[in-house]
Amino acid sequence: MVQLDGSHHDWFEGRRGQCVLMVMVDDATNRVWAQFFEAETTHTSYDVLAGWIRKYGRPQSLYVDRDSLYCCENLGSIAEQLAGKGPQTQFGRAMAPLGVELILAHSPQAKGRVERMNGVLQDRLVKALRLAGINALASANQYLRQSYLPDHNRKFCHRTCRLLHPDRCLV
């Protein structure tokens, strides 16, 4: 299971406008993937998931909040009701053919691992971006992929993951 969340924060300490860091954390291994975007949208959720899949493979399930990107609160169509299925968002419909189960959390505390990671990144990553002199999303994403995330995963990825998949945890 991989937890997914968008973290809205002043990542660049006023050096540019606010943005969102889409963060994914593997619940079993503590492996992290993240990307910066201007806003949290369905498209950004697709993009961050695509990055995860290219790097680590397809997750069996995604644990997400009840944001309107992932959760549809209306009754749905008559066909959906007759089939015993609830309505799905565009993101939810896209997960079905991939074989990725979408699990909706009932509270932020339920997504504890990714919520704690957001706090860690809001502390450490902000400082790292400042020290590296990064003020733009493109260069911040490049820094994440090439430097920050590999170092972070090398230090904090669960030992079992490092033993079974050293190529995936260290890079």
Compact overview of the structure:
The chain is of the alpha/beta class. Helix content is 46%, strand content 18%.
Describe the structure.
The protein has helices at 42-56, 78-82, 90-98, 112-131, 137-156, 159-164, 166-169; strands at residues 2-9, 19-26, 32-37, 61-64, 101-104. It has 171 residues and is of the alpha/beta class. It has a five-stranded mixed β-sheet, with helices on both faces. A hairpin with a 5-residue loop joins strand 2 and strand 3.
End-to-end C-alpha gap: 20 Å
Number of separate helices: 7
Number of beta strands: 5
* Helix/strand structural class: alpha/beta
**Helix proportion range:** 40-55%
Largest sheet: 5 strands, mixed
The dominant shape is globular
Looking across the biggest beta sheet, what order are the strands in?
3-2-1-4-5
Q: What value does the average pLDDT take? A: 85
Low-confidence stretches: none
Strand content: 15-25%
Whole-number radius of gyration?
A: 17 Å
Order of helices and strands: EEEHEHHEHHHH
Please outline the helices and strands:
Layout (H helix, E strand, L loop, with lengths): L1 E8 L9 E8 L5 E6 L4 H15 L4 E4 L13 H5 L7 H9 L2 E4 L7 H20 L5 H20 L2 H6 L1 H4 L2
Question: Which features would summarize this protein structure in a list?
Answer:
171 residues; alpha/beta; five-stranded mixed sheet; 7 helices; 18% strand
